[in-house]
Amino acid sequence: MIMTLYHGNHYIKSLESIVKNGFDTSKVGSGWGMTYGAGVYFSDNLEIAHEVYSNNNGYVVAVEIDTRAYQLTKDYTVSNKKQIKQIIVKNINTKKYNMLITKGIEPEYVLFDLDAIVSIKLLKIDNSKN
Questions:
Q1: What gap in Å lies between CA 79 and CA 84, rounded to an integer?
Q2: Would you identify the CATH topology of the domain 2-125?
Q3: Pairing, β 109-111 against β 59-66
Q4: Residue range 96-130, pLDDT digits in tens
Q5: CA-to-CA distance for 111 and 126, rounded, in angstroms?
Q6: E strand map for the chain
Q7: What are the structural domain ranges in the chain?
Q8: With the C-alpha atoms ordered 13, 57, 27, 5, is the resulting torsion angle positive or negative?
Q9: How far is CA 5 from CA 9, 11, 19, 100, in A?
Q10: Dihedral angle at the C-alpha atoms of 17, 22, 27, 29, nearest 10 degrees?
């Protein structure tokens, strides 16, 4: 299923580089937010991607992804890393799924297979509404 998700970054230059060159696989897993493993983290909520992940810098990237997602059925915390790793090994690493969707009010979408990306475009956000 093709879906559009949003990725934010505090640095506009980083977002421009993502649009031009794709996601840099050497940076996957190098930032904060590694609770669910080394993948690229997205939101399905444009406002969350902009306000939280881009720190209201005026830009996010919209990414179309051909998803085969595994939906978690309960919330996990950082202290559950062993359980999360087992879920990823069992469901993601077998290539059955390419994405993990967390449970919660604002779920995170963690993409493990960057080849599933169909398109990436930079969105300018109107900050005058904030």
A1: 10
A2: Phosphoenolpyruvate Carboxykinase; domain 3 (3.90.228)
A3: unpaired
A4: 899 999 988 889 999 999 999 999 999 999 866 54
A5: 27
A6: 2-7, 40-42, 59-66, 69-71, 99-101, 109-111, 117-124
A7: 2-125
A8: negative
A9: 14, 18, 14, 13
A10: 130
